[in-house]
Amino acid sequence: MPESWWGNAIFSLIPTIVLGLIFWMVLRAIIRGDRTARREYDRVEAEERAKLGLPPKGAAPAAPAAAAPSEPARDTPGSAPAPGERTSA
């Protein structure tokens, strides 16, 4: 063990720095592995969806025209006015 103050300080910090680097490398490997696995899973899923003739994962399905909401009748007695519409009072 070093006898000087600087040697002792460096000797004390080396294990902390080495463990920090090991921790950083392990976390980096885990994050990169997860990113690669997700990318491959998405690629395989896209291939399978293409084989089945399905739209891509992020595409919104087309809504049928009959499912569109119709405009409510406003002239019927007892109906509430639309927001921002003035009433005759």
Q: What would you say this structure looks like, in words?
A:
- By secondary structure, this protein is mainly alpha-helical.
- The chain has a domain of 37 residues.
- It is built from one helix and no strands.
SS-based structural class?
Answer: mainly alpha
- The amount of helix comes to 40-55%
Query: SSE order in H/E notation?
Result: H
* Integer-rounded radius of gyration: 33 Å
Low-confidence stretches: none
* Average pLDDT metric: 82
Please count the helical segments.
Answer: 1
Tell me about the largest β-sheet: none
Q: DSSP strand (E) fraction? A: under 5%
The general outline is elongated
Topology:
Blueprint: H1 5-52
Structural features:
mainly alpha, 54% helix, 0% strand, elongated
Please summarize what this structure is.
This protein has 1 helix and no strands. With 89 residues, it is mainly α. The protein is elongated and about 95 Å long.
